[in-house]
Structures are given as structure tokens and as C-alpha cells.
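User: I'm writing a short methods note and want a consistent example. For UBC core domain-containing protein, I'll paste the sequence; you return only the C-alpha cells, no commentary, since I'll be parsing the reply automatically.
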Amino acid sequence: MFAAKRLGKELQKAKYLPPGIDLVKADDFKEWQVDIRVLDSNPLYLNQIYRLSFIFTNNYPIEPPEVTFIYVPPSSSSSTEPISNTQTHAQSQPQSQPQSQTTTTPNTGRPIPIHPHIYSNGIICLDLLGSAGWSPVQSVESVCMSIQSMLTGNTKNERPQGDEAFCQSMGVRGPNGWTRSERGRGLRGVRFAYDDDTV
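Assistant:
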């Protein structure tokens, strides 16, 4: 109930998201999807759009959401239109269910960005997303801005050490969920060592 109230308020503000951040799916208060772009001329991410998945528990924002990049293959089928700048029923009634808008437009796909703190399966090693680094004052918008900033400042075209083994053990997240049933336990069981703040 508390999560729904908070997310209802965040949804109302979604039409004012900063440049390069677009809410593309908010069908309920369990999962939202957001597209982000790096706005500067960083050649690693030039002209790329990436998709983030936010999975919320009933204890949000006391508990952090589970945030991962998801791979969306290119297609010309129906795609979800950004709703950041559209009116939704939930904006007038914060506790009601949010609505997405779907249109048929070319979809160039959403890859997983290459970064020393982002695994090939979309899992992000960022202290802000862990229980120790999380604060209830954070929001979907602030998390997106932090990840956007993390990408902007990166100069290394590489994956984290041990990427292949980690991804084999965790599975891969796509637009329809994880490829392995054991991923149902969530990311909260993963413990990262945050020892490199240079990227």
C-alpha cells in the first residue's frame, strides 16, 4: 500500500523527467521500464538507447527496487511509447493503476551497455542499488540520473571481471523475464564489493 502511494506520486512527476530519461512502461506498481540515453558525446554510448527495469516490493521505498538493464531485440512490431509526457489516469488519482500507451513504431532495439560495473546480463554493480547504499529519499528518477551519470563518465569499453561466469550463474534478463527459473530469488542475494569508484 505504501509502495503504491509513493509510486503514484512518482508517476505524476514522470512527465517532467530530465532529458534522456523516458518512462516507457508503468502498467502496475510491480515493474516499470525506463529508457535512458547518454546526452554528451561519449563515443562508447553515442546514439544508443538503453532500457532499465525497476521491480518494486511492497516495502518500496524503504527497500530499494531491483534495477537491471534489459536487452530488447530490434523489431518493427508494436512498441511501448514513452509516457513521460502524457497524461494518465493515475496522475489525477495517485493510488490507481498506471497505464502505458502502445504504438506501432520501428524499434531499433535496446542493448546492454558495456561498462566495468554492468554485467552482460544487465545486472548493475552500484552501491546505490544495494541495501547499504539505498535511502528512501531516492526515486526512480534519481536512480536513472545516477546510472546516466555513471555511463557519461565512463571511458573503459569493458565488462566487469568474471562477467562470463557470473552471467552463467545468474541467467539473462530479457523483455519477458529471466531465462532461468532460479533467478526468481531476485538480486537481493547478490553481494558486490564496491571497491572501484573511478568508473
